[in-house]
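Page 47, continued from p. 46.
Same chain as before, 456 aa.
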Amino acid sequence: MHFLYSIGLLALAGLIVPLIIHLWNVKQGKMVKIGSIALLGESSRASSKSFKINDWFLLLLRCLLLALLAFLLAQPYLKKIVSGNSKNGWILADKATIQQVFETHKKTIDSLLKKGYKIHDFNVGFTPLTLKDTAGNQAKQTNSLSYTALLNAANHFVPASATVYLFADRPLSRFGNELPTVNYKLNWIALNQTDTLSSWITGYSGKKYEAKSNPSNTTYEALNSADEAPINIAIHEAPGIADGKYLIAALKAISSFTKQKIVINPNLEKIDIGFWLSDDPVTPVFKSSIARNGSLFKYEKGKLITTPSTINIYGRHIKLNKRIVSNNQSEKIWTDAFGNAILTNEKVNNLNTYHFYSRFNPQWNELVWDGVFVKALMPMVIQDKTAKDFGFENHPDDQRRLSAKQNIPYQSSKAESTPKTNQNESLATLFWIAALLIFVTERILSFRKKPNYVKS
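Result:
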């Protein structure tokens, strides 16, 4: 047995109180009448006192009661060794769909419950559920929280290395750009939903698109194909640099996706955006070729840092090998894992300038190999002032689902190498019950005790 607050044991000093009461047994002296007091001098009254314990059992009860109260102040507990095996397993399901889940997977759930698994709501707080929650008392709506956020949050609730069975569908719209990493063994059992198709109309950069979605993919088709002015783009790269080919491939993808004509390196025309892929300063001629309110994207030169890190873009973490130290106080658009600027933006004299502190080169980073590269360039190429996000939104009718072959990454924890862990179990309830029983017994004995009368 251990105590949470050992200082509470100082209250044991109170045991001296019942001991003093029982030892201090005072008896008054008895008056004796005699026939003549002539020969006797006046004597003072005297009382006899004896230090004697008359009731050992009652003393023991009172001392024990005070001792229990002192222990309660110290908050006693026992250390129990808990194993992180299947007895700590969880069953996760949205409370709104728990009835459907139980009806469909009754045999599996019953088997898990017999092994000691507990049902929890797949929602914030992971509230425990019972079988009563599977009958009629259901939530009106399913939660719309990100599965990535919920699975990451479960790392703080589920015992490390425990086994978890999650009964839920796998819509891609409920995940972010990256899958979560969990420290428990997750078995995801997808609900048996039939393949569905859906469509909706969305807008981007002044155009309307019809989206058609199925469990495998979502496609967009431009509805208004009216003639539009092309986007003129100039690319300058220094001799010996081949970064331009990656940029051109991304620009062609943007043009194909948006049905917007993009002209690269036009002759004798103002350009909408210029890419300066060189360590040399931007020439006045190149800068003057950019139209009013156009954009300039340029490589920055400075101190080279080769510490491995990542570029953070739209929630993705892209490997970064090299970067240039930024002393620019402009708005950060892309950063590395430590918050250092990788891409900044500022507008001066009707020129929108992007300062890039890395390169479009696989030796510097893996950005050009990542699908987010095209999405990240789109707001610079097609400047949509009203778009909240660069690219198309995550629509609630998106039917895409995470492939059944795609597993959630599992990261073992220290608890797995030490399968037995300590857990504290409070003994306060037992001590309160014992104190109550002793108090009642002491009161009964006290009232039943007969007073001693002295016969004269």
